[in-house]
């Protein structure tokens, strides 16, 4: 299992955000989570990253992360989890290869491996191999670079929070095409949070976060 939430309980102030929330996401599968602004979608991503500590169990790549110490958590996250945000959150002065290789270096890869892997992955994901600052790329190219950075350490789990939220229609479609190929091509589970129904509908399952739980469209 790439990700498992069991009986999550979490409050912000006196408001319950998660109430016995459950999710099982196997490797090779994608799930989209939709829900109104403020319903807790980004907080759910933070739980999977171990940045927010709810009650209940959070398992990533088969290991419970809720009771892990900070250092172990950081190591586990680096080895098993990739994440893509709305604006890519890349370093704009570095080239795409440097941005992606950096994530490999931080996880302990040798300089040579990190750069070779970064170049291969970027080529596979269709980012032009131009030697220029990431800040000068188009929004779509930046998001592809962000996906490459998230995949460089071969994670079991890929998390994406509004990955197409800042893109026009053409780029939204090409980034969504790419994202939903990831579970099959790179053997991981994909959790995408999105407000975009067309993007969500490409996932194997669409769940709605409401009243602290994830429900299927029928409300079952
Ligand atoms: N550290 C915090 N302290 C207090 N409240 C918080 C904290 N983190 C999140 N919240 C609140 O929890 C709720 C859920 O926030 P979250 O960002 O997860 O929503 P979201 O579903 O991602 O919304 P959006 O669609 O706008 O991105 C919000 O009301 C937010 O203000
Ligand atoms: Mg959010």
Radius of gyration: 17 Å
**Percent of residues in β-strands:** 25-35%
Ions and ligands: adenosine-5'-triphosphate, magnesium ion
Q: What's the CATH C level of the domain at 3-90 and 157-216?
A: Alpha Beta
What CATH architecture of the domain at 3-90 and 157-216 would you give?
3-Layer(aba) Sandwich
CATH homologous superfamily of the domain at 3-90 and 157-216 - what is it? Answer: P-loop containing nucleotide triphosphate hydrolases
- Helix count equals 7
Q: What does the overall shape look like?
A: globular
Most strands sheet: 6 strands, mixed
Helix content: 25-40%
What is the name of the CATH topology of the domain at 3-90 and 157-216?
Rossmann fold
Largest sheet, spatial ordering of strands: 6-7-8-3-9-10
Contiguous runs where pLDDT drops below 50 for at least 5 residues: none
Determine the mean pLDDT: 94
Describe what this molecule looks like in 3D:
- The chain has 220 residues and is α/β, with parallel strands linked by helices.
- The protein has a domain at 3-90 and 157-216: P-loop containing nucleotide triphosphate hydrolases (Rossmann fold), CATH 3.40.50.300.
- 36% of the residues lie in helices and 26% in strands.
- The chain has helices spanning 41-49, 70-80, 96-106, 111-124, 139-151, 169-186, 197-200; strands spanning 3-12, 15-25, 30-34, 55-60, 63-64, 81-84, 157-161, 189-193, 205-210, 213-216.
- It has a six-stranded mixed beta sheet, sandwiched between helices.
- Helix 3 (96-106) crosses helix 4 (111-124), helix 3 packs parallel to helix 5 and helix 5 (139-151) runs parallel beside helix 6 (169-186).
- It is globular, with a radius of gyration of 17 Å.
- The mean pLDDT is 94.
- Magnesium ion binds next to helix 1.
């Amino acid at each position: 299992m790439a990700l498992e939430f069991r009986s999550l309980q979490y409050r912000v102030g006196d408001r319950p955000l998660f109430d016995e929330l459950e999710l099982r996401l196997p490797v090779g599968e994608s799930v989209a989570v939709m829900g109104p602004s403020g319903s807790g979608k980004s907080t759910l991503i933070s739980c999977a990253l171990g940045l927010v500590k709810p009650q209940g169990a959070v398992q990533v790549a088969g290991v419970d992360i809720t009771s892990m110490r900070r250092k172990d958590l950081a190591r586990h996250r680096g080895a098993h989890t990739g994440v893509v945000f709305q604006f890519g959150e890349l370093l704009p002065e570095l080239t795409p290869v440097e941005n992606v290789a950096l994530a490999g270096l931080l996880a302990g890869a040798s300089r040579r491996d990190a750069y070779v892997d970064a170049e291969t992955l970027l080529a596979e994901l269709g980012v032009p191999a131009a030697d220029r600052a990431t800040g000068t790329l188009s929004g779509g190219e930046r998001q592809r670079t962000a996906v490459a950075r998230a995949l460089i350490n071969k994670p079991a789990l890929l998390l994406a929070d509004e990955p197409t939220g800042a893109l026009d229609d053409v780029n939204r479609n090409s980034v969504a095409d790419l994202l939903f190929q990831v579970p099959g091509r790179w053997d991981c589970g994909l959790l995408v949070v999105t407000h975009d129904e067309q993007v969500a509908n490409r996932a194997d399952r669409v769940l709605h976060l409401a009243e602290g739980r994830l429900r299927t469209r029928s409300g079952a």
